[in-house]
Amino acid sequence: MYRRLDDSMGVAGQLMPDELQAIADAGYRTVINNRPDGEEAGQPSTEEMALAAKAAGLDYHAIPMGQASMTETMIDATVKVLRRADGPVLAFCRSGTRSTLLWAVARARLGDAPATLFERAGGAGYDLTPVRSLLTPE
Known about the structure:
The protein has 5 helices and 5 strands. By secondary structure, the chain is α/β, with parallel strands linked by helices. The chain has a 5-stranded mixed β-sheet with strand order 1-2-5-3-4, sandwiched between helices. Helix 3 crosses helix 4 (97-109). The radius of gyration is 14 Å and the shape is globular. This is TIGR01244 family sulfur transferase.
């Protein structure tokens, strides 16, 4: 269902509202939704996911990221959520890739070494090459 990037972060493909209680039961405390509404037929809305997260006792954040865009606003919002999270975070998008890329850039801004981020993402089956230039200080 999800892949762990480290002890405080996991990523997943599309989650459904009825899965959020199991996510909470697995120890996650925060969910980040990185999918824009209406990206795919049958996808639950941000509102549906927020209500289900609340019912499961999860902190919920929508930080939608389209297929080809990552903005400073998204990065800053992710940094803010990661800093304030009271326990493990699970981020999701269609496949987990965008969530992983956004997590890596946010963690780099928080001071994590690029080599460590590449290792963690690679261990979960994700490639950070598309954001390599954003992981190192200018």
